Amino acid sequence: MLGLLYDLYFDQPQETDRTFDVKGVKLICDEMSLMYLVGTEVDYVEGLHGAGFKFQNPNVKSTCGCGSSFSV
C-alpha cells in the first residue's frame, strides 16, 4: 500500500474513534488508521528548516523521496 499520509487537525471524536491521553495531550485516532500507527512516536521539533511534528513509525517499510508519504 502506498501513499499513506500523516494528518494532524483539531476535531471532535467520532463514535468509533479511539482516544488516548499521552503526557497530558489528548490524541484521537480513527479505527482504520490505528493499525498503521501502533507504536508511532510524535515529537515537535524546531530547527534550521523550521518547526513541525516528526513521526517515528516502526511500521513504515518505505517512504517517498519528499518524505511526506509512506507505505507499510
Short description:
The protein is 10% helix and 43% strand.
Overall morphology: globular
Q: From the alpha-carbon coordinates, what is the Rg to the nearest angstrom?
A: 13 Å
Indicate the percent of residues in helices.
Answer: under 10%
Overall pLDDT: 84
Q: How many beta-strand segments?
A: 7
One letter per element, helices H and strands E, the order comes to: EEEHEEEE
What is the first-to-last residue Cα distance? 7 Å
Largest sheet: 3 strands, antiparallel
Low-confidence stretches: none
Strand order of the main beta sheet, please?
1-7-6
Structural class by sheet pairing and helices = mainly beta
> Given the structure, what is the number of helices?
1
Query: In percent, how much strand structure appears in the residues?
Result: 35-45%
How would you describe this structure to a colleague?
- The chain has 1 helix and 7 strands, in the order E-E-E-H-E-E-E-E.
- The chain is mainly beta and 72 residues long.
- It has a 3-stranded antiparallel β-sheet, with no helix packed on it. The chain has a two-stranded antiparallel sheet with strand order 2-3. It has a two-stranded antiparallel sheet with strand order 4-5.
